[in-house]
Amino acid sequence: MKRVYNLRVGGQDYRLRLTLGGQKRLKERFAEETLQTVLSAAGDGECMAALLGEALNWEGSGNPITDGEAFYDLLVDCGYAGQEAFGGLAFDIAACSGLISEGQARMLKKTLAEAVDRAFQQVERGPLPQGGEPEGEAHPMTAAG
């Protein structure tokens, strides 16, 4: 039995799997490691559609839709929205396909959710003060820890 990510969308079942062949096609198309494309998919529609297209198209998938852009639109029509939803799906596909572990997928989802929350909190607070950092907060890459 092949490992697949099962997803019910629009009343139909889909089986998503990013095969090694699919990973190689993504690597060639975007001229980067496949994991980078997966990480980019949360905020880049072209990367997400390409990832979905590859994950839908594998021998024996039986998926009723195999076009990544059409599937993306179906997801939106069925309530998917935002970087958390699409990023989470990309991470789940990567984990099911052996590109990352399930634990790494959970960590990526948590990190993405926290980043999105911080971004929206900043929008609510208004523009950053001169210098670019909120007062009293260190940039995560420069904070001592």
Question: If you had to describe this structure to a student in words, what would you say it looks like?
Answer:
It is a single chain. By secondary structure, this protein is mostly helical. The protein is built from six helices and two strands. A hairpin with a 2-residue loop joins strand 1 and strand 2. The longest helix is centred in the last third of the chain and has 24 residues. The protein is globular and about 55 Å long. It starts with a strand and ends in a 20-residue tail after the last helix. The C terminus is likely disordered.
Report low-confidence residues grouped into runs of 5 or more: 135-145
Q: What does the overall shape look like?
A: globular
Question: Given the helix and strand composition, which structural class is it?
Answer: mainly alpha
* Rg over C-alpha atoms, rounded to the nearest angstrom: 17 Å
Oligomer: single chain
Strand content is 5-15%
Task: Lay out the secondary structure.
Elements: E1 5-9, E2 12-16, H1 20-30, H2 34-40, H3 45-56, H4 68-77, H5 82-96, H6 102-125
Antiparallel strand pairs: 1-2
Helix pairs in contact: 1-3, 2-5, 3-4, 5-6
Quick description:
With 145 residues, the protein is mainly alpha-helical. It contains 6 helices and 2 strands; from the N terminus they run E-E-H-H-H-H-H-H.
What would the keywords be for this entry?
single chain, 6 helices, two-stranded antiparallel sheet, mainly alpha, globular, disordered C terminus, 145 residues
